Structure formats: C-alpha cells, structure tokens
Amino acid sequence: MVPANPRGPILVTGSTGQVGGELVRLLAPLGTVYAPTRAELDLANPDSIRNVIRSIKPRWIVNPAAYTAVDRAESELDAAHAINAVAPGILGEEAARLGAAVLHFSTDYVYPGEGSEPYLESAAPGPLGVYGATKLAGEQALAASGVPHIILRTSWVYGATGRNFLLTVLRVAREKAEMSIVDDQHGAPTWSRELARLAAAMLAQAPDAIAARSFTGIYHAAAQGETTWFGFAQEALRLRAQQQPQTRFARLLPISTAAYPTPARRPANSRLSTAKLTQAFGFHFMPWQEALAAVVAEIP
User: Would you call 232 exposed, middle or buried from its count of C-beta atoms within 10 A (0-12, 13-18, 19+)?
Assistant: First the structure.
C-alpha cells in the first residue's frame, strides 16, 4: 500500500474530551487537523468511521476517544465494546488501506493491579472489569489490522476542564465538611496536556506510516512519581487553599477500597514504567506534583 501523503491531514477523535481538546491545539503545527464532532464521527457505528476516514484521507489517526464510564460499563457492555473494542480495529483497517498510521490511547486498567512494582509493557494483562477488558480487546484489534501503530497506556488522566477526579474533588470540598478518599490504590495522575505534548513529539519524529512502523508497539505514558487518590486529593486541596486562603475546604479522610465498593473493581497497583517510552522517543513527563500545580493554577 502506498503511504498516505506525508503532508496530509491528521484526524483526531474525541476532540471535546480532556485529551482530544489538547491534541487539536498541540498537533496544529504539524499539519491540518480534522476534529469531527461526535455527530459527525460515531465510534459506535462502523459505517460512520469508515466514511469519515475515507473522506478525510488522513496520514495519522489519533484516537483518544473511548467509553470511559468504568462503573457503567459493567451494565452497558455493548456500548463499551463497540467504542473500545471494535472501533480501534476499524480505525486500523481503514488506516492500513490508506497507508496511514494510528496513535491509540489505552489504560492501566488492562492490568490486574497486583504487586507494588511498576508494570512493564511486557507484563501479562488481566483486566478486572468490562472497561479494561474492552480496552485490551481494542488494542488487540488494532494490532491485528497490521497498520503501523502506537498504543499509549496511561493512568489517572485529568486536566483543568471536563469531567475528572481533580475537578470533582475541588468542587465537593467546598460543599462538604469531610470527604472520604481511597488511599490504597497507587498510580500516577497524568495531565491531559502532557499526553498531547507526547503525541505531538511522536508525530514530529514519525510524520508518516513508513516512519511510524519502526516505533510500532505499546508504550506506557504516565507522569513521574506515584501517589494514591487520597494523596492526589490532598495535594490538590493544599494548592487550592494557597490560592483561596479564605475558603474552607473539606477535611480529607483516607479509606480503603473495601470501604468504598463500586460496580467495577479497580487495580490497586497502577504504577507504569515509562523507561521504554523515554528510550524510544527521549520524552520525559513532568513529576505529577509539578503538573498538578500547573493545572490548579489554570482553574478559575
């Protein structure tokens, strides 16, 4: 297959999401970015996916879009499967037909969360719920398409806009006297802008499918360091209190996962080693505390 035009457009899915919105802005210097709305590109509809890709003819497809309602996925298996498991395979098939490449975002939830060491990309997956299982199936479908591709497994994504743990904590902490936060799940909160910055660096190094083929594979992409959800919330409120010294925020109470049951099980260990990413692309994430400070500074 003849590779797509090396100066051709970049297709970004999920442009209204946390990562997608950042991608649209940060990928713009690399070429024309097409960011169709959900109505224009329905990832649950294979025909919609094919029609959009064949119309745009991108050289890269960047796919941060996903069904991310972890608990709801347990009862909405069909929706989660269509978007997370089936759509990436179709993106890969269509990209391969055009001679394009795919950059796909995945999750720490593909792992069982055992032990305390950071996971390597070579570690055996073992999702605990529907969300992780469908995301793993999507990775496998993309790889099976034969398209040059990069899969980024990331963790605990947040930013200054959208729906995420950080914004929920900052809002609820103004409304309640106490908040209970899980303190036995470990990982790295990862800023959506850092992920977009990584994607831009990758596409700059691999502008087309020919260059992308040498990088094909799975990479972990997460902030430096580690914490718990409780530690993340604690640092966020400390920073917010510095901004708003007159505001009274909730007192945080650490609790166990067992004390906060949810429909879907969460991995206790979401630590991800990023050594492979750094070696391949020379990319370094910010420490999670520095990134969090930058995000909190942006929030009105």
Answer: buried
